[in-house]
Amino acid sequence: MSPMRDGLFWRMFSAILAVVTVTVALFTAMLLATQRTQAQENYETEVRMQARQVAEYMQQLNQLNLIKSNATIQWLVNEKIVEIYDRYNADIWIVDLSSGRLELKYIDRSWNTTESLASDAVIEQLNLILAGNEIRTSGLFPELGDHIVTIGVPWTYSDGRVVGAVLLHIPNDRLQVSLISVLPQAALPIAASMLLGVLLAFFIARSQTLPIKEIDSAVREFTKGDLSRRVELHCGGELEQLGNSINRMAGELSSLEESRRSFVANVSHELRSPMTSIKGYVQAMLDGTIGDEDRPRYLGVVLDETNRLTDLVRDLLDLSRLESGKFPMEIAPFDANEMLRRILIRFEQRIDVKHIDVDIEFADDPCYALGDVNRINQVVSNFVDNAVKFMDGEGSLLTLRTLREDKHIRFRVQDNGPGISPADQPHILERFYKADKAHTAGMGTGLGLSICKSILQQHNSAIEMRSRPGETVFEFTLPAAEPAPRIAGDAEGQRPRMLAE
User: Fold this and answer.
1) Please, what is the average pLDDT of the chain?
2) How many CA atoms within 13 Å lie on the side-chain side of 76?
3) DSSP letters of 108-158?
4) How crowded is the C-beta side of 75, counted as CA atoms within 13 Å?
């Protein structure tokens, strides 16, 4: 089978067409059955009308009181009997009940069934006719056969009194209408229904497969690396939603690809700069360009560049593990105030060199928060490092605060440095982003704030930043915890627990 005929369109078209065909077939069967039933009813009504016409002739004879002498009416009755016999293969019996006894008139003389009129079954049916009813029964006269249907109608005097019966005997098969006989009447609607079904199957299959082809074409372009391709669908429903989702995915993949390329370019640049410096100094020392007396100084430069490479590789590994979710977090209560004190002690020398004043404002002391103390220490240290890096001279102020907010602890690092330009603020959390006047400038790797962002995401938190000339604030929140009551035998005397518990 060719790919075209084995495609989704042909499978869907065939399936819909099969359903339509079955539906049309069922409709046709019901239509033919209905028309056949209607035709049979019409045919039987026609036969009954023949019997009624004979009854009208008999009534006319009664009105003229010339039943035995009016040759014209008698001839009409005989001709009607012959016509019925030839046309329907049926016989007419005319029963006179006016004399109080059964008397058979105008009968096919080949049947000698006068005595059958006296049977109980016949008497019962004749009484129904005498009461003015019409009858239809099968097998009333066994000598005629079970396949004979008897239709009886009353005939009356001018005063409306029933005086006789007209019995028409017709084979049952002559009352049946074959399906073939009604098929021509149903041929046109059947053909129209089938044509409409084919057209509907085609358009429905086409309307469903065209969006899928559009999606398939877009995905093929994606696999070739063209992420600018977009799915254009206006069909509504789930397929259009799928197209929109694919477009969003393409946009995210495009951003991710751009981010990847930028990341590779930035890493290459960050690695190339210190490696070039190291190679240049080592080559100069080897070929004697740098003398022995200058060698220690340049070896120190090489060591600094090596440490810079080490920091970069460490930050890259940390960032990779954080973003992959494989960086284990040891979540436990810790004293936030004590952590900030230790950070200040570690930065004490740099703070003194720059003559920076420190303002510390703690919430409750001790103040317990829930998180990985080492990773949170890394976050706050990065904030403090950036703040110290960009403050210089008298009047510089570094502020560290912990604030209790309901069931959370807010950590805040604030400085009165030059601030971050509005153009740089949306980008400072991006990897390798550096700006001359931003807190991320200097000799850092440009990954510090990105790592902080990933660490806080692991804690279901986020960096909140605001900056203007003379004020820059970095802050975040963690769930609060409080020490449990003293327990006998507990050496520490205090064991923190979450406030939210």
Assistant:
1) 76
2) 14
3) -TT---GGGGGSHHHHHHHHHHHTT--EEEESSSGGG-TTEEEEEEEEE-T
4) 3
Structure tokens at 163: 């005086």
Q: Are 230 and 398 in contact (CB under 8 A)?
A: no
Residues with Cβ within 8 Å of 459's Cβ and at least 6 positions away in sequence, in order, are: 329, 331, 371, 372, 375, 376, 478
Which segment, 49-63, 136-150, 468-482, is predicted with the most confidence on average? 468-482
490: confidence class by pLDDT, cuts 50, 70, 90:
very low
Query: Any idea which residue has 């805040």 for tokens?
Result: 412
Q: How confident is the model at residue 115 (pLDDT cuts 50, 70, 90)?
A: low
- Asked whether the beta carbons of 428 and 465 are under 8 A apart, the reply is yes
Strand partners, 138: 149
Whether the Cβ atoms of residue 281 and residue 290 lie closer than 8 Å to each other: yes
Q: CB of 218 within 8 A of CB of 229?
A: yes
Query: pLDDT, tens digit, for every residue of 38-90?
Result: 777 777 788 888 888 888 877 777 666 544 556 676 777 778 778 877 877 77
Instruction: Map tokens 């016999």 to a residue.
Output: 85
Would you report the helix, strand and coil content of the chain in percent, each value rounded to 5? 55, 15, 30
Contact 212, 242 (CB under 8 A): no
> How many whole angstroms separate alpha carbon 467 and alpha carbon 448?
18
At residue 496, the 3 state secondary structure works out as strand
pLDDT tops 90 at residue 474:
yes
Question: Taking the CB of residue 143, how many other CB atoms lie within 10 A of it?
Answer: 10
Residues 6+ apart with CB under 8 A from 440: 386, 428, 433, 434, 446, 448, 449
CA distance 469 to 114: 130
Amino acid 229 reads R
- If we measure between CA atoms, which residue out of 176, 173, 101, 110 comes closest to residue 143? 110
pTM over 0.85: no
